Amino acid sequence: MKRIFALAGVAALALGAPLQAQDNGDPAAIVAAEADRTERVAGQLWEWAELGYLESRSSALLQDELAAEGFDVEVGIAEIPTAFVAEWGEGGPVIAILAEMDALPGINQSASASRDPVADKHAGHACGHNLFGAGSLTAAIAVKKWLEDTGTPGRIRLYGTPAEEGGSGKVYMTRAGMFDDVDIAIHWHADDENSAAARTSLANRSAKFRFTGISAHAAGAPERGRSALDGAEAMNMMANMMHEHMPQDARMHYVITSGGNAPNVVPDFAEVFYYVRHPEPEGVEAIWQRLEKAAEGAAMGTGTQVKWEVIHGNNPLLVNETLARAMDEKLRAVGGVDYTEEERAWAAQISESLGDAAKPLESAGDIQPYQKSLGYGSTDVGDVSWATPTVGVRTATWVPGTSAHSWQAVAASGHSIGHKGAQVAAKAMALMAAELFTNPELRAAAKAEFDAARGPDYQYKSLLGDRDPPLDYRR
């Protein structure tokens, strides 16, 4: 289902004529004037903490903010109800900014500096996507106002991209051709440091392996049972043995999502959820074939049956050093995150909980050296980067030393230091977008590097095949 709406001629949000005149030509200053919006939207997304493909309120909030600023908004793209694209402007190049919004299941935390799970809340923004969504929103609105103030031709787009955490929302959007007419795409991510380094990522694929057996009384008639959990555990045992014989940069991990309900009942259903990662898509495919054989062998040996459903798959990030070096310049012009005394005290308490992983708090204000490197995470931004030249930035939204997917990340994502990091990212992205709109030589150089990296015979192939978006994978 799709709906398209636009609100034209809406007055700028409480900026006033003098401030607009002052900000004319400075996208970063416009971002600074939008700090209240960034904090408000980030805070609301953090409170809701909606899971992948279920981000109905979060997506609607971002859409409403954009529509109120005069963007044309199309909803339900790529057959995903919570995915949208918002556009303002005409002519010129098309510059896209990506916005994520989904939370992670099974981890939550208040904005306290000590461990404080929130009762009856089953998810949290442990990867900072509330900040991602709010910061990207602010950047897009700032660029729109800059285009309007300066009369610069071009179109700014914000893509609302659901389900990054294991749902591959951007892959379906890429597969549907939503980025085919984009000149450059910009993204960012929450982190514990500030960096615009050209860091690639691992390709990955996931699937839920579902074993079925025969239930029976575990004591009274064990010979009649065939344990689905035995099948899952046998598969896990073989997969763990595979770790010894995998490439150094490969990764494989799993969780048992269903294993039975009572010890005295032989379970007739079990499910295990696997991720496989490798720097190259071909490496994922090779390991995956071995994992499928392990599943089949486990079922054969335990007298059970197994089927599996591929849930998501991401290509690795195709870095563009032409764009990365330009983004590094913008980030250095903006600077890092400075703490108030109150924020420093809060951060110091978080830092104590990190143990040996803690870093000096002052490093939140530093910009890390530019370099090209391999990152061991995975992201569906990877598929976007094979459709159009793409550049990213990371900012210190978390206390230095904090790992993603931790309670400390949830806490900081709901705290003022997280909001400050989102503002830093928004400023860098807005400055980068302005440069791209006005510098055709930079766009051409980035496109030349992109074309050379893909090669003349490149054809896009997703790692999730032709399946439909798994809209219920988090239910």
From TrEMBL:
Range of residues in the leader sequence: 1-21
Keyword Protein biosynthesis: no
GO cellular component annotations of the record: cytoplasm
Listed SUPFAM superfamilies: Bacterial exopeptidase dimerisation domain, Zn-dependent exopeptidases
Pfam families, per database record: M20_dimer, Peptidase_M20
One biological process term in Gene Ontology: folic acid catabolic process
Claim: Protein transport is one of the keywords in the record: no
Limits of the Peptidase M20 dimerisation domain: 206-297
InterPro entries: Amidohydrolase, Aminobenzoyl-glu_utiliz_pB, Bact_exopeptidase_dim_dom, Peptidase_M20, Peptidase_M20/M20A_hydrolases, Peptidase_M20_dimer
Any one GO molecular-function label of the UniProt entry: para-aminobenzoyl-glutamate hydrolase activity
Keywords: Hydrolase, Signal
Protein origin, superkingdom: Bacteria
Entries under NCBIfam families matching the protein: amidohydrolases
Protein name: Aminobenzoyl-glutamate utilization protein B
Source organism per UniProt: Altererythrobacter xiamenensis
